[in-house]
Amino acid sequence: MNIKSLLLGSAAALIAVSGARAADAVVVAEPEPAEYVKICDVYGAGYFYIPGTETCLRIGGYLRYDIGVGDSGTLDGVNNVGDHMDGGNHDTYYKNMRFTLRTYTGQETELGTLKTFTETRFQFGNSSGDYDGSSSTSWQAGNKTTSLNFAWIQLGGLRVGKDETAYDQFIGYAGNVIQDTIIPYGVKDTNVVQYYFDAGSGFTGVVSLEEGTGVNTIDSYVPHVVGGLKYKGDWGAITGVVAYDSNYEEVAGKVRLDVNVSKELSLFIMGGYGTDDNLTDDAHNAIDVHGRSQYKPWGGNWAVWGGGTYKFNEKTSFNVQASADDDKNYALAANVAYTIVPGFTVTTEVDWDHYGNFGNPSIYGNWSKADKKDSVGGIIRFQRNF
């Protein structure tokens, strides 16, 4: 009896221990709750919250493929190169492929909206121009220099970093043509300290302290200064900007009028004027001859640009721009832009100019005042925005 009870008790104990061990073996830790990306619709489409933060992020950009033909005096034209087999000169396409990556962030703070924006461009292709085929290799396609076009931080109305000058950006550049700078209206790249303000009732403004770029970079502690004021209504807008060039102690300005004639037709005209009393001094004669500078890159004292856009339908628009300056340079550009599907647009453009430049050919062209020429060219652009 005692032995039987002992055996039964031992068996029960073994079963209990085995059951406990089996239970321990199949226990699985509960998974951590997954944190999914949440949509942020505060700043527009495409933003999402960076997990674990209150910062909204958007990633975008575009792919662009350009094919240029025609005389190099007008646009990104053809190259005159040596034939590989017989050494004779031939024209070939200008082609360029660009990948642009953009990032945007936004976050609300007690001091206002904190925003950032970056844009980096990667390109492959050849350079435009006329070459004799003997020494220049610019007609050869290859990877080009990667460029940082934008990288700024903005809190409320205060913006600092790499941007395009307010002298161009605030006034709205020029027309909707590809080659809108045949008669140039500004030199865009610069580091800035800016303040944007909204006065209400359609009035906005900007004050910008700028470093300049290239040969127009400031040569002292005194920055270039740009100020702008805009009034915008349902009918259109009127904008003015004025700039002080600290290198030469010169002043330039532009005024622009935009008119919405109808839902299909919009027109604009922009005029620029700048002083050039100090721009031909001997110290800078090799570069800035005949009054060209950061804020007055056109020839002579004045320049004018005008044109418009007509939308045939939601997919197709016609764009045109005419321009001229005090040095008797003239240009005309026109294109048709067609959106095949949302986000993918093909633009076909034709350009003409009567042009000749002063100064350094690598910056302003290859012709002197006495050697103006008429040029015609064209470009086809395929662009996918995302």
Automatic annotation (TrEMBL):
Gene Ontology BP term (one): monoatomic ion transport
GO cellular component, one term: cell outer membrane
Membrane topology: Multi-pass membrane protein
A GO molecular function held by the record: porin activity
Domain topic, free-text comment: Consists of 16-stranded beta-barrel sheets, with large surface-exposed loops, that form a transmembrane pore at the center of each barrel. The pore is partially ocluded by a peptide loop that folds into the pore lumen.
Family under the similarity heading: Belongs to the alphaproteobacteria porin family.
Role, per record: Forms passive diffusion pores that allow small molecular weight hydrophilic materials across the outer membrane.
Annotated protein name in UniProt: Porin
